[in-house]
Amino acid sequence: MEETISIALWKLLNIAVEKTNNYIANTDELLIKAKEVYAKSKISQLEYEEGQGLVGYTTSYDYFTKETWSINDQFQFMENVLKKLPEYEYCKEKICCKYNILEQAADSKLSQFLQVFLNKSIYKGKKELLDDYITTFVKDLDNSPINWKLKASLNGIWLKESEVRLNNGIIVRKPDVSDLENECSLSRLTTYMSNTNLQNRPTSAILEFSAYASSSSEVHKKLANILEIFRIFRLGSVWAQCTEISPQSILRYGGVSGSRYSTSYRYGLFKEDTEVLNSLIARLEPTLDKDFGVMNKNEKLMHLTLKRYRDALLQPVTIEARITSAITCLESLFLKENEMLELSHRLSQRVTALLRVYNLSPLEVYKNVKHAYGIRSKYIHGGEIKKEQIQSANELCKIIIDYARISILNFIQLQEKFNKENLINKLDDSVLDEKVLSDFKDILNYDVIITS
User: Fold this and answer.
1) How far is the C-alpha of 238 from the C-alpha of 30, rounded, in Å?
2) Percentage with pLDDT > 90 across the chain
3) Residue 114, Cβ neighbours under 10 Å: how many?
4) What is the pLDDT of residues 167-204, one digit of tens each?
5) Which positions ≥6 away from 328 have C-beta within 8 Å?
6) How far apart are CA 316 and CA 264, in angstroms?
7) Burial, 15: exposed, middle or buried (Cβ in 10 Å; 0-12, 13-18, 19+)?
8) Helix 216-233 and helix 390-414: axis angle, to 10°?
9) Angle 77-115-145 from CA coordinates, rounded to 5°
10) How far apart are CA 266 and CA 155, in angstroms?
């Protein structure tokens, strides 16, 4: 019976353990060691305010020296000892054969396997550690799904309780000292702090979850879906300023990434929101998770409308531009492709027809949408709001974006029951027929999850 790759790797690691331990034991005095100064940050005076989030903290640093096995010496040991082992050559040949890759590629993967093994210093001869390590490496070679941990620092959401736990292991919590303290070499401190935005800027919440996936792009996609749902759950400019992804892997990489948006609107997330938010995630995530190329017409409409909604919430633009993005979001939902006349009236009337179901004043909704449409038209043609009108325009902008949020929640949850044109026809009919209105209210009460 042919020997498996796992057995071959097991034999290689066992001899590598023996060779490495002998090398360290017999050359300890001559072992080439590297000394490097490290800095460890210490956080104090953490200030968290409801309605805002983390508003400030104080950072100080402790410095100390670490002694490590030098990278150059490790490399020489790898090249001159471990790579000369017949077990190494045997494993390399089996990897080439099974995965149909060039010898150079197989050598690179196997070398990385041993290098990470050395760096993690797990060569203790413990069978369970070696087994786990080999299993992880084989999954990487097979490109099988693995476990990824994600931590993101959020803006736009604040919490009263210490944490809110959702389904599928999703946790939203207040930031604490452990999120801000770090340890790194002095030579990398500046780069580390600039790359890890969480260390530099206050945040309002920490999001954590694990995902079983083949690549980091799948994990980023899951994060994007969750943030999208958070933005329409309530009116909030929710975005991740720093994201850390850690895979249970040897060949696949995580890392730290950052972004920067405007946080114009915030909301509080509470434990009593758990049931509704879980239901909304379960209902919306399958649609959001689809690739654009396989979406149907309704799903593509939602995808493009959500982009306009994101622009209204997150882009650092003037109030006129923000209102324009919100109005174009409503236009994409409530106007038909062939409609060219009385667009302002049609749009205002249809938005009113939907939102009055949620006990919003029809006359007030109609006037707000008409007013916002006027600002949109003026902005597109080069006009701007007068200084004395800025405050009222800010208030109107928030109202119109919330109209867009409620409308998106309705359209996206009703897309299996109605296409866009049928839903618009239903809204038009509900203005004239009380029976249609009553039936429509029943549909919304049964099929749509809405949060105020």
Assistant:
1) 55
2) 59
3) 23
4) 999 999 999 988 888 887 776 665 555 554 444 567 89
5) 308, 376
6) 9
7) middle
8) 120
9) 160
10) 8
